[in-house]
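sry for the spam today, last one i promise. struct tokens for design, 170 residues
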């Protein structure tokens, strides 16, 4: 790994502070937090606990919204999405653990819009490893990482929350 990740607790604290400041600057009092399954849900839960918004935490499983569904196939652990409120005119904070190509976020946005048109969507990501295929950028970011050829990262958890580096053979 070309750049080493900072400790997860430190990054989550940074996300909480940055998100709280961002929401205050935007005049957003009570956002709807939604985590993308599975790592995004774990991060979103920690943010939800820190911010203590009025709405319960929402979760998305974007498996059926992916544009590569026909190539990848159905992941055997698909779980239902759960949004506690309609998103119509709500300020949504969408949380994912790792942003790479932007395709997961595009799929999540499509699913969110099925629940209504939000007033705004703020994207929070723990890690950004680049390799963008779509013009999607996080508003709040924990850390940008540069991975070597064949390297991937995976968040495992929820307790303890840990980062795993995966080396794929060429």
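last one done:
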């Amino acid at each position: 790994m070309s750049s080493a990740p900072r400790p997860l607790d430190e990054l989550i604290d940074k996300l909480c502070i940055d998100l709280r400041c961002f929401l205050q600057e935007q005049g957003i009092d009570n956002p709807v937090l939604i985590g993308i399954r599975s790592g995004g849900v774990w991060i979103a839960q920690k943010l939800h606990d820190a911010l203590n918004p009025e709405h319960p935490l929402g979760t998305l499983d974007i498996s059926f919204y992916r544009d590569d569904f026909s190539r990848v196939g159905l992941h055997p652990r698909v779980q239902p999405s759960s949004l506690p409120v309609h998103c119509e005119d709500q300020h949504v904070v969408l949380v994912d653990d790792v942003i790479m190509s932007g395709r997961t976020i595009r799929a999540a946005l499509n699913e969110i819009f099925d629940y209504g048109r939000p007033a705004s969507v703020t994207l929070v990501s723990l890690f950004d490893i680049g390799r963008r295929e779509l013009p999607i950028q996080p508003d709040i970011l924990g850390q940008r990482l540069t991975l070597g050829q064949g390297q991937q990262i995976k968040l495992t958890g929820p307790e303890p929350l840990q980062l795993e580096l995966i080396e794929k053979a060429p």
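DSSP finds four helices and seven strands in the chain. ok im logging off now
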